[in-house]
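QUALITY CONTROL LOG
STEP: pairwise intake check
CHECKER ROLE: data steward
CRITERIA: each record must contain a sequence immediately followed by its structure tokens, with no blank fields

ENTRY 1 OF 2
RESULT FIELD BELOW
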Amino acid sequence: MDRKTTVTIIIVFVLVLGGVLVWKVGPNKSEGAEISKRVASMEKQVDALYTDNKEMLADGVTQKSFDEVYMVFRKEEGKEMSEEIAGRLNTVIMELSMAENMFKLQERTNALVDETGAVVENADIEAVEKLAAELERDKPTFVAAQRVIIEKAIAQQKDSPQMQQTP
């Protein structure tokens, strides 16, 4: 083989290898960009669950709010992604979980009392206090707001002889 043939073979090999790499890596980059867009969308959805400082839940949060984010998340399960995107997704999942725990505490706390603010007959205050204790370290402002209702329910339960007799 002469030098010209060797150089030609090397150039063809490099072009073919380059084409294969572009063909293989190119779609992954665009797919990575799509995943990044979906993660950004999830970040916005999770941010909408909170007030600006992420200490309190936003008004109007419902279970449907969480279900929508989980639906988008399920589409990303098992997909390959960069470490940066995976880190962002992990943060979204942690914040979503925290918001969902806050929502559960809020719902359970509100269930302790009726529309007039009177403690309901079968109020499970212990379970609500346990939830509050679990969240207190991470969301003290939110838990403090819930404790106002919890403390009122406890006081009403102590004052009511009927409630004390309930097992």
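ENTRY 2 OF 2
RESULT FIELD BELOW
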Amino acid sequence: MRILTLNAFLLLLSGCATVFKGYESEIVIQNAPADLVVSTSEGIRIPSRNGTKMEKQFKGMYLWEMVEVPDYATHTISLRSGHEYLLLLKSGEKESRVIIYPNLGAGWLILDMLCGVFPAWIDMHLGTWMYYDPIDYNSLSVK
């Protein structure tokens, strides 16, 4: 009975990264100008959203509060996991091209291997083990 229960539990965790993380990964573009436009090499514009940061704000005598404020120097985009992309980053007249490659997320791999071959096969096939490193806009060559 215990083995049957354990097997049923492990099947429920099938494709752990797919269930908990989803099919998309977020890519952070740091030190970017506020008017940054991100698109693929095919010309498809990718919607980006500004990041947030915590700042200390004065509320009164001896009272400070941490509040979340927009961080216009950080942009976040979401793309399907497990693929390499050529991104065009355009701000005004300046344009940069960057190729991003997926990296293997070892935590998801280990968790799937502990759960069995079937969950690992699902996540491997869908590429949900993968993540992307942040992009530093200042380190890119601008044309």
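INTAKE CHECK: passed for both entries
DESCRIPTIVE NOTE, ENTRY 2: DSSP finds four helices and ten strands in the chain.
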